[in-house]
Amino acid sequence: MHRAKATFREFLVAAVASISGIAMGLALGWPSPMFQKLTEETLVENPIGYVIVESEQSWINSVLAIGGFFGPFVAGYVSDRVGRKPAHLLSSVIHIAGWSMLLLAKSVPLMIAARFVLGFGNGYILITLTIYIGEIASDEYRGILGSFLQIGQTVGILYVYCIGPYVGYYAFQWICCAVPIAFGICFVYMPETPHYLISKGQHEKALHSLMYLRDATLTNLQQENAFRKLFTYRANQKAILISFCLLSFQQWTGIDCILSNSELIFAKARISLYPDISTIIIGTVQVICCIVTLFFVDLVGRKPVLMYSAVGLSISLALLGVYFVMEPMAIPTEHISWIPLTGMIGFIAIYNFGFGPVPWAIASEIFAYDVKALGSAINVSVTWILDFLALRFFLLISESIGFEWAFWIFALVCVAAFIFTWLFVIETKGLSLEEIQQRLGGKSTKEAL
Is 0.85 topped by the overall pTM? Predict the structure, then answer.
């Protein structure tokens, strides 16, 4: 097979699989335009029939993370039982169910239940998509393809920001539901991963899958108790420590808090642009920066990108905190009203250059194949708990003592992320899975070879 054709197919399969990432972004960005409709005094676009209060907004927003906690465990089990492709395809059904529930929602409890289902679907996709791309990607393009998840999410969030404020509530739910439907239709034609087929002894099917994706040879995979291997083998212990901490730091940069409440933050900052226009600018910056990241994540390396990103995030968050402390101190802000938008753009850009896509790329490549599903499920489930706590924490802190303290605490977390990356994260650029495992186990790549 001509290598260029194989590369095209590899990217095509990853791109189609990552449409599910767009569906994730829709659920993440949904509160920003929809809360404007649910709190509008006229009730024109409010299916509930009254203006929802802050506690209801908080639960509708944060319950996404609770659903996300349960999704990975189901995803890991289904992926190992029925296959990577069928498991990932099932995510479309979950999201369609969630959007259908929002279409029928006439009360806050039903809306919360719908958001729980969408959160479950998001947590589910984080496992199935990460495993699927990790197993179809070649070593040469593993970092690039691993970033497709973050690109999909940013496209989905931009989709929400651009459409949500300008269409009715019911029209918007239908528009969102169209994405998982399109994903399900397209993904049916994609192949199962070769590694799963080999693990089930289906070598002929695995060969066809490999030859579709790229020229490759079959390797034997040994089956062993995944739970025991994950927590007793040194390489796997370090893999779960590194991936878990990076994903946890990712959640506590405050990214979901800022994206879910972007219009509220811009309204509070009293900038000259309309909040919905500012939010669209933020969404556009996300997509552009994620795409740009593809061109240097495999050139510069994962570790330097993460370290630079952590430093930049700390500075951006600290400056945002300084701006929001000026109002309580009666310091005039008329001539520096550009700082919130600039700071937010800087934060979003730096996040999507580093701590957005790179932790997922590392999580998809750092585990051995026989513990990938279990390790990913544990990581993602716990990070969803942290995401829920971050969302609750942000609203609690911002309402009680001000936005500035929330931003400053997130800035300190980013400082901790820099220190952890510097001390503990290994560089995986250009390494095969075997070389990564050897380095995690304590051998240098040169020694291993």
Answer: no
